[in-house]
Amino acid sequence: EFVTVSAVTGETAELPCSATLRTGLGPALKSAWYRCQNISECTQLIGTVTPTLKCLSSNLRRFHFRDRRLATSEHCNISVVISDLHEDDAGFYKCVMSSQQQILNTQQVYLQIKPEFVFQLAPTVDSTSTKGYASPTRASSSVAETFLISIAIAVWLGVTAVLLFLCLYGRHLYLNS
Questions:
Q1: What string of DSSP letters covers 97-158?
Q2: Buried b (16+ CB within 10 A) or exposed e, 75-104
Q3: Tens digits of residue pLDDT in 105-164
Q4: CA 120 to CA 136: how far, in whole Å?
Q5: Rounded to an integer, what distance in angstroms lies between the CA atom of residue 113 and that of residue 170?
Q6: Cα–Cα distances in Å, from 154 out to 58, 151, 157, 159?
Q7: Contact assessment for residue 63 and residue 82, using Cβ atoms and an 8 Å cutoff
Q8: What is the DSSP-derived secondary structure letter of residue 60?
Q9: Which of 93, 138, 92, 85 is nearest to 113 (CA)?
Q10: Residue 80 near residue 59, CB atoms below 8 Å
């Protein structure tokens, strides 16, 4: 079971990893993120997160962690966020959450990178489980692009209508002469 996160090149994607903690395990929680060569072989460590330290592997300037832990909650979400997506960022990622030598959750995420299209409105998330997760997007630029496309289509339809009218009017004049 894995979650699929889809995003467009140049945008930002957030890969989720969450666990429900038993009472008292929160302070010792550790999360490790890996980049996978395929769905089963995940050996390239991206980084680790503990309550006191967030450590990324070198040369990962576009990556950072988002830690959403509440002291009063048993639910924990530690995501890896990748900005300025490149096509080679696509693939499987794996998160392992553990506490006191015990694995609490292993989450696999497939990052699908779509080429930048004019009609792309927002990143989408498809989950094979019932958990959904929204990825950040540049919604304002998408709205502006959609608006400009609408105007271009309206102008094209207007020009087509005028040309059709002129063609029919010219035919009418030709037949009446």
A1: EEETTEEEEEEEEEEEEE---TT----EEEESSS---PPP--HHHHHHHHHHHHHHHHHHHH
A2: ebbbbbebeebeeebbebbbbbbbbeeeeb
A3: 888 999 999 887 645 455 555 545 434 444 444 444 567 777 788 888 889 899 898 888
A4: 14
A5: 51
A6: 50, 5, 5, 9
A7: yes
A8: -
A9: 85
A10: no
Q: What is the rounded distance in angstroms from the CA atom of residue 95 to the CA atom of residue 92?
A: 10
- Whole-number Å distance between alpha carbons of 19 and 176: 81
Q: pTM of the predicted model, to two decimals?
A: 0.61
Query: What one-character DSSP code corresponds to residue 174?
Result: H
Q: Biggest alpha carbon distance in the chain?
A: 96
d(CA 142, CA 150): 12
Record the tokens describing residue 95, joined without a space: 């998160």
Please, which residues have CB within 8 angstroms of residue 83's CB and are 6 or more apart in sequence? 12, 62, 63, 64
